[in-house]
Write a structure and sequence with these properties.
This protein has 608 residues and is mostly helical. The protein is 56% helix and 5% strand. The N and C termini lie far apart (60 Å).
């Protein structure tokens, strides 16, 4: 049987391996990938739940391949995990439905979401490897009696705790093998051993300024594992975020885009046969997928900004995988007509996915991310304290500073950080940060008056008793003409514009843009076009979203005067803001008036 599986699946595995090896990321990527590589190199602590298995794996790979850069070493290591995942899934698919199942696994391998995380240093593909192992157990519970299988499945505990959604499958297998006491003892010992790997977080470098948290006890490790610093199963706190139906719609879109072919198979089988003949294997997978989607759609409070959608979407790789394996048990077209239709559907999907991979791999966007943040760091004055907002700017800057030694003089401080981060900043830089760490408020309230601080693209000094908080992250570019394309959302100030702003701009110009303040920039454009009533509306929206934005308030007062409305109250508020703001702030923020040579475009359809 093993020889038959290898003979049948090796062409698919070889093709997938070539695709991954030719297209894997060799530069820092958005969100967590840069942090994962950095902590793998430094042997530090990753964000909750810690992912100790991933850290140990990366740390070992990096030190075994000193001739490769850390980002390349970890990228390759992740590719091999992805290939193993596809190989194991292909073997199961072949057992379920022969070569037709391999087509579905091939569609999974090059689906946009799976390919993206298979070819970038992330933790989610490792979770898929364990998920395929659990699906094998569901398919054949007799492998529960093999200690090596139990040890492999147990390791998933130390990788990502969302594997808890598949744990009932293990209990089902244990019940089916309830007479085998020896296997139960092995399972318990394997689980305890795997969970003890979290103890390596105490042996790592949790005191490092780059590490997450201050882990000095098993209780702290348990809190890290339970994501108490985030809130268990909560991706972000966002009271005014999208509704459940909006999040559900997004989840459905992600799954449909990445599992079009298997969903078609399941739909056709259900249409022909109905649900009544679904077996235990199929019903269990379907139930697990429904529960998983319901829980994460309800718990995920990430706003639908560009980064928010990325965070939200990657949690749905697991349902895409399970849906594919579910479809494999049905992928047996009987008639010539069904086979022709299946081939046409597969050809369409493979062309779509192949086009996506080619476009993303050779567009230059991947290389641009690391280059962009490197240019930003290099542009800062010496000994800057730079405030970073968002996972991508923070973690990519960590990587550039800790691994590539880019601007080690710069102090990196997230604008919203937890008490342990304040303690690290105060401990390592006592002359720059005070010692008040009683709350998780904005970092600007923790800075010392009179010391110059920087955000990407702006500079400010804290005055006594005055908050210099800036609510938005800024992008910075260098000399030349630049065109910014964006859309404003009436639901908030988050960026909702092109999928990746770096794709539409050149780093050859000089401009600083607060990408969350798109209403303000829209107002500037309308003002230049002498569409004053529309400009007034845009500025009012910008001031409402960010009441401390002085320049939006100034433009609003200016517009009111130009259309003959009473601007007395507006001017009073502006005077108060100006009186309580360091004058150097205005000198360093002249960019906010948007030079005439910059063309600002937007898609108005999103505002209606």
């Amino acid at each position: 049987m093993v020889k038959t599986l290898i003979k049948s699946t090796w062409p698919l595995i070889l093709i997938v391996a070539l695709i991954y090896l030719l297209t894997f990321a060799q530069t820092p990527m958005e969100l967590d990938s840069a942090e994962i590589v950095t902590q793998g190199k430094l042997f530090g602590v990753l964000h909750p739940p810690g992912y100790p298995l991933q850290t140990l794996y990366n740390h070992t790979i990096i030190h075994l391949t000193p001739f490769l850069s850390p980002i390349v070493a970890v990228g390759l290591a992740n590719v091999f995990v992805a290939i193993a995942t596809i190989g194991l899934a292909a073997a199961l698919a072949f057992r379920l439905s022969g070569r037709w199942g391999l087509i579905l696994v091939g569609s999974l391998a090059i689906s946009p979401l799976f390919w993206k995380y298979a070819t970038s240093p992330e933790v989610f593909i490792g979770l898929q490897l364990f998920a395929v192992g659990f699906t094998w157990l569901l398919y054949d519970n007799s492998i529960y009696r093999k200690p090596i299988v139990l040890m492999f499945l147990a390791l998933s505990i130390s990788h990502h705790h969302t594997i808890v959604f598949l744990s009932p499958w293990l209990f089902m297998a244990a019940w089916e093998n309830r007479q085998d006491v020896k296997s139960h003892m092995v399972a318990i010992c394997a689980g305890l051993t795997a969970f003890s790997i979290y103890g390596t977080l105490l042996l790592a470098h949790p005191q490092s300024i780059y590490s997450w948290g201050l882990l000095d006890s098993w209780q702290a490790v348990l809190g890290h594992f339970l994501r108490q610093e985030y809130g268990t199963f909560s991706l972000a706190v966002n009271i005014g975020g999208p509704s459940f139906l909006e999040r559900a719609s997004h989840a459905i879109n992600v799954i449909a885009e990445n599992a079009f072919l298997p969903l078609s198979v399941i739909g056709w089988f259900t249409f022909r046969k109905g649900l009544i003949i679904w077996g235990k294997f199929e019903k269990t997978i379907l139930f697990t997928v429904v529960v998983y989607i319901a829980v994460f759609t309800a718990a995920g409070a990430v706003p639908f900004s560009f980064a928010g959608k990325l965070v939200y979407a990657r949690f749905f790789i697991l349902p895409v995988l399970l849906i594919t394996l579910l479809a494999c048990s049905f992928a047996k077209p009987k008639t010539r007509y069904e086979k022709i239709v299946a081939i046409i559907f597969a050809a369409i999907y493979f062309c779509y996915s192949g086009t996506y991979i080619i476009r993303e791999s050779f567009s230059g966007v991947r290389e641009e991310i690391g280059k962009f943040y490197k240019e930003v760091l290099l542009s800062l004055p010496r000994n800057s304290i730079v405030s970073l907002k968002g996972d991508t700017p923070l973690f990519v800057s960590y990587y550039l500073q800790a691994i590539e030694n880019v601007r080690p003089d710069v102090v990196l401080a997230p604008p919203i950080v937890l008490p342990w981060k304040h303690k690290k900043l105060q401990r390592d830089f006592p002359a720059l940060f005070n010692d008040i760490f009683t709350s998780t408020t904005n970092v600007h309230e923790k800075l010392l008056p009179g010391v110059p601080y920087h955000e990407f693209g702006s500079r400010f000094t804290l005055s006594p008793g005055v908050s210099a908080e800036q609510h938005e992250f800024t992008y910075k570019f260098y000399p030349g003409e630049l065109q910014i394309s964006f859309r404003c959302s009436i639901k908030g100030g988050n960026y909702t514009g092109p999928d990746n702003p770096l794709r539409y701009v050149s780093t050859a110009g000089y401009l600083i843009i607060n990408y969350g303040l798109c209403d303000f920039n829209k107002g500037l454009y309308l003002l230049r076009e002498k569409r004053l009533l529309e400009a007034k509306s845009a500025f009012e929206t910008a001031v409402k979203k960010n009441p401390w934005q002085i320049f939006a308030q100034e433009r609003l007062c200016h517009t009111l005067k130009n259309i003959g409305e009473d601007a007395t109250d507006c001017q009073k508020r502006l005077d108060v803001l100006i009186d309580n703001t360091d004058e150097r702030y205005f000198k360093d923020n002249k960019f906010a008036l948007a030079p005439p040579n910059v063309r600002i475009n937007w898609n108005e359809s999103n505002d209606k």
